[in-house]
Design brief:
The strands form 2 sheets. Strands 1-2-3 form a 3-stranded parallel beta sheet, covered by helices on one side. The chain has a two-stranded parallel ribbon with strand order 4-5. The longest helix is centred in the first third of the chain and has 18 residues. Helix 1 runs parallel beside helix 2. The chain is an alpha/beta fold. The protein starts with 6 loop residues before the first strand and ends in a 13-residue tail after the last helix. It is built from 6 helices and 5 strands.
């Protein structure tokens, strides 16, 4: 795992394993970053339905409590598949914050992970601008990024158009004052 790659607690069922890594006496097993759930706002994999923000907060509570005392990792908010859940004042992330004793507003969870899928590159940049406006103290990590969510969506773009799309997104994000870091850790 790369130094800046988060360990993802994919589902509530994985919380015990994530906590076990944090509690390990072997410091090298402590992930530098831990994402608290992946796309709880949609049915995913074997998950039949969404995970309510109150249930998500309750599920990850052992990790939050352990890290509050021992501070062994940097936590990322649940990565939502729909940016509106991050942007909206009453969205999933705000509800999660209300159910985790203010873990977001207190900066106990200082990083917001977001998945951005949008054919409109400007729409991605606007979404990042909105997330920053809603959560101005937080670092924003775009952990999934593409113009289409799945090969079956038949992305209408050519390879060159996807390259141009990516250039627009990266340039737009950098124009917002963000540091753009590639998966290899190189800052641009």
């Amino acid at each position: 795992m790369a130094a800046n790659e988060p360990l993802v607690v994919f589902n509530p069922e994985n919380v015990a394993r994530g906590l076990q890594l944090l509690e390990s006496e072997n410091v090298s097993s402590h992930p530098a970053y831990m994402e608290l759930l992946n796309e709880p706002d949609i049915p995913l994999g074997k998950r039949v339905g969404k995970i309510a923000p109150s249930h998500a907060a309750k599920a990850v509570k052992p990790i939050l409590e352990y890290n509050r005392v021992h501070n062994v990792t940097t936590l990322l908010a649940p990565a939502l598949s729909h940016p509106s859940g991050i942007l909206d004042a009453e969205g999933c992330l705000t509800q999660f914050d209300g159910n985790c004793s203010g873990c977001m507003t207190s900066m106990e969870v200082p990083i917001i992970a977001t998945h951005q899928y949008n054919l409109d590159a400007k729409g991605v940049v606007d979404s990042l601008r909105g997330i920053h406006a809603r959560w101005p103290k937080h670092t924003i990590w775009v952990t999934e990024l593409a113009p289409s969510t799945h090969a079956l969506n038949n992305c209408p773009m050519t390879l060159k158009q996807v390259g141009d799309w990516m250039e627009t997104v990266v340039t737009g994000a950098a124009g917002l004052g963000y540091t753009v870091t590639t998966p290899g850790g190189k800052k641009e």
